[in-house]
Amino acid sequence: MAMRILHLTPSLCDATSGLAGAVRGMCGALAKADVEVTVAAIHNPDRDKPPPLADYPCILATPSRLPILRQWLYSRELHRQLEATFAAKPPDLIHLHGLWLYPQWLGRQLALRWNIPYVLTLHGMLEPWRFRHHAWKKAPAWCLADRQVVRDAALLHATAPAEAENLRARGLRNSIAVIPLGIAFPESAIQSRGTVPGGTCRPGAFAERGRSAHFSGGAVPSGKGFSWSGGAPATFTALFLSRLHPSKGLPLLVAAVAKTRPTGWRFVIAGPDEGGHQAAIMRLARQAGVADRFEFVGPVVGEAKWRLYAAADLFILPSFNENFGLVVGEALACGVPVLTTMATPWTELAEKGCGWVCEPTTDALATALQQACNTSVAERQAMGESGRAWVRTTFSWAACASALKAIYEGVAADVLPKGPLQNNFGIGHGARPSISRNEECACRDM
């Protein structure tokens, strides 16, 4: 008989964070692995688009209308729906995603009430950098509720060895399984690599039309002919695609671009703005005299996201902290070489011949950026192919689902050891970097 697993997550909307896409990919693969999956999430119809159709049932509930409760995603409707679901047919196990919000607190409450074990995927939310960011808000939540959510989990799921090591360093005694997320392989993006809608063009053409907002307020042109104040045409595109958040290191990227000013390159910034961080980055770019090299396209999801990847010549994620960095895997799956930092788990990029890795400092990023931009088109294309082959053979949702299914069975049978790290498989064990305190604080305070 198939196990019944309830996944409880804050949202299934792509515009909120990468967590939503990770949950959908995970649950879709589990459903194909003969696991009876149900997903419950908060859905704000005033903000969120309807989630894509799925091969599993979804329970969507609206949050409270009171602003003080809405910010924690409190929802009496979610509580009522889950109580009814449990009364009719309780799950064998609950899988919680993330921290700091009402859905996780509710998940623990239901698990204790119905005597059902639960697994917790933290998605990097207890990583040191992220815990320190807005600590004034997280510390009380940790003491009042989230410490108990973590403590009572039958198993913690980390997506990289470094995340598991940080959980141990925090003193957590739970069983920990290290299982990397899967990577989607969009054939449409792979086939359209180097093309734009309406025809084929040389590498470097930017395919996305009609979504970009340039500093001047006009639409960003695509393909040839884009120019900035220096007068040189923009031949190549470097893409950043993630949340616009202090942890992502965008001030480092602005400073590195200002220091190197690579010829013929423009930098496309895609993703949802959090807390007005985009305005801070735009201000930094203007002050550094490189505003006309940057374009902000906002949240990009679905097919438009894959077209962005396909049109990019380089992907950059200059983060101070990543527990997994799903976008790095997506870029590699599309054949795009990647530049990222040692603060991500993707420390094997150089070894695998598909990218560059540096410390999360301005000088280190500037050096790596100069190397990446000076690499020939043929070399970058070869690196992209190497990255695609590596990701395809190592990071599949089917492998992730198979490992999770084994973990579920172990939790349900109560045969998992308490304490020892279970390193099923994962990305490389890169040493955690020493981050410049001044640069870290500069990003965190924006």
- Content-based structural category: alpha/beta
List unreliable stretches of 5+ residues. Answer: 194-232, 417-446
Report the major sheet. 8 strands, parallel
Please tell me the overall pLDDT.
81
Give a brief rundown of this model:
By secondary structure, this protein is α/β, with parallel strands linked by helices. Helix content is 41%, strand content 15%.
Structure description:
- This protein has 446 residues and is of the alpha/beta class.
- It contains 17 helices and 16 strands.
- The strands form 3 sheets. An 8-stranded parallel sheet has the order 3-2-1-4-5-6-7-16, sandwiched between helices. Strands 12-11-10-13-14-15 form a 6-stranded parallel sheet, with helices on both faces.
- Residues 194-232 and 417-446 have low confidence and may be disordered.
Observed structural traits:
2 domains, 446 residues, alpha/beta, Rossmann fold, disordered C terminus, 6-stranded parallel β-sheet, 16 strands, 8-stranded parallel β-sheet
